[in-house]
Amino acid sequence: MAKPKRKYVCQACGSVTNRWQGQCADCGEWNTLAEEAPQTVFSAKHDLSSGGRQIRFEPLDAPGEKLVRRTSGLGEFDRALGGGLVPGSAILMGGDPGIGKSTLLLQAAANVANSGALAVYVSGEEAAGQVRLRAERLGLSNAPLNLAAATSVRDILTTLGTMDPPALLVIDSIQTMHSDQIEGAPGTVSQVRGCAFELIRYAKENGVTLVLVGHVTKDGSIAGPRVLEHMVDVVMSFEGERSHQYRILRSIKNRFGPVDEIGVFAMEGAGLAEVGNPSLLFLSGREEPMAGSAVFPAMEGTRPVLVEIQALIVRLQSGATPRRAVVGWDSGRLAMLLAVLEARCGLNFSSAEVYLNVAGGYRLADPAADLAVAAALVSALGDKPLPKDAVWFGEVSLAGEIRPVAHAGIRQREAAKLGFGRGFGPASAATSTEKGLRYDGLTLLPNLVDRVLSAS
C-alpha cells in the first residue's frame, strides 16, 4: 500500500495543496491552510465491479407519491423558494452577520409549528434561552416549536431518530456542527462537508425539509467547501445593508423553481415584515424631479422591481485625477458607458468626478440598466431633470446602439401599474407597449442625449 500524502486545505475557499504555506494561492487569504487527515490509499487492483447490491431502475413515468409543497407562512419566503417548502429538500442560506437569517428562519419555523406540523430549530451559536428571548420579542413565544442548543450531529440525529420526522429542520449554523467521526475543529472543510452530508441524507430518507444556515466570507460568498453548494438543492442569499430597512432573499440555485427569484422584507421592531410591492419601497421620496435621477424597471427572476438610479457630476478646477465612485452597480460597466458617451456622443467626462448610486442600497446586475444609467449621467452633466413619469431600460453596445432586452412587456406593465406614463427603451420593444404608457423607441445613444439635453 502506498504511503499516504499530506494535504492542506484552505478553510476560506476549500483549495487543496500538498505543502503548507502562509498565503492561499487561490483566494489570497493568510494563515487559512490546515492539514487534513489523509484518506486510505488503495492499490490499483481495487475493483468495485462486483460484491455490491443491485439497484432498481425506474422509468420516468413510474407512479409515485407526488411531492406537495408546504407553505412557510411567509409569502415572500415561499416566492423565493419557487412556491414553498419541498419535502426532502436541502436549503442553504447565507448572509452577512446580523442581517436577519436567524430571525427569518425562526419566524418560518414558528409558522410551520403553528400550522400543526412538527418543526425543529437547532441552534449551535446561541443558548436556548437566547433564542426564546428573540421569540418573545417577535411574539412567537406560544408557538409549539421544538428548540434545542446542540453542536453534535450524532446527538442531533440520535434524538431525531426517536421521534416522528419533522416537516422542517433548521440548523443554525452548519459551521458550528461537528462529527466525532471526523478529525478537525468545527468549521473546517472536512467537518462542514461531513456534517452536511449526514444531515442531508437524513432529510432525503425521511422527507424532511432541511435548512442549513451558512457563514459568509468578507466578499459575500458562503464559507467552507464549494462542494457544499453542490450537495444542497437550493442556495439562497440574504442581502441588504444593515443601515437600510429592507432585506432581499435571493435564490441563487434552485432545483425546484426559477433562479434569481427574490423575496423582499423590511426589518421592523417585531421582526421581518413582508414587502408586497418593493417598487414603492425603492421609489419613496421622489416628490420633485431632480437632475441626475432616472427610474429603471429591473427584473429579479419573474418579478419586476422599479428602482431609482442617481448620478452626480462634479467639475474639477485643478488637474487632479477625477474619481469614479459606484454604489450598487458594476464599476467596470460604468467605465465602459462613460467611454461610449465620450466616443459616440461627444460628451466630456474626463475632467469631472462621477458618482453613481442605486437608491436604497439595491444592487443591480441587469444589463438593461445601461440606458437608465446613461440617462442619469447625461441629465446630471447638463443639469436637465428627466421627466418624472418616465422609465428607462435598454442595453448599450460599444457602438452606441440601444440593444433589445428580455421581458420588455413585463417592465412596461409594472411601470404603468405604478402610475408612470412614459417609457424609453429599444425600438424593438415598441410592439409590446402597455396600455396607458406612451413608449418612445431609441436606436442609438445620441438619440437619448438629444432628448435629454433638448428638454426644457
TrEMBL record:
Does Hydrolase show up as a keyword for this record? yes
Domain (RecA family profile): give its ranges.
66-216
Q: Name one GO biological process term.
A: recombinational repair
Binding sites annotated in the UniProt record for ATP: 95-102
- Source species, domain of life: Bacteria
* InterPro entries to which the protein is assigned, alphabetical: AAA+_ATPase, DNA_repair_RadA, P-loop_NTPase, RecA_ATP-bd, Ribosomal_Su5_D2-typ_SF, Ribsml_uS5_D2-typ_fold_subgr, Rubredoxin_2
Provide the residue span(s) of the region labelled Lon-protease-like.
Answer: 353-456
Whether Ion transport counts among this entry's keywords is no
Gene Ontology cellular-component annotations: cytosol
Give the stretches traversing the membrane: none
Keywords per UniProt? ATP-binding, DNA damage, DNA repair, DNA-binding, Hydrolase, Metal-binding, Nucleotide-binding, Stress response, Zinc, Zinc-finger
Task: Tell me one GO molecular function of this protein.
Answer: damaged DNA binding
Sequence motif RadA KNRFG motif, location on chain:
253-257
Stored NCBIfam families: sms (TIGR00416)
| Free-text note regarding domains | The middle region has homology to RecA with ATPase motifs including the RadA KNRFG motif, while the C-terminus is homologous to Lon protease.
Looking up PANTHER family in the UniProt record yields: DNA REPAIR PROTEIN RADA, DNA REPAIR PROTEIN RADA-LIKE PROTEIN
Q: Which family does it belong to?
A: Belongs to the RecA family. RadA subfamily.
Name of the protein: DNA repair protein RadA
**Organism, as annotated:** Novosphingobium chloroacetimidivorans
* Protein's gene: radA
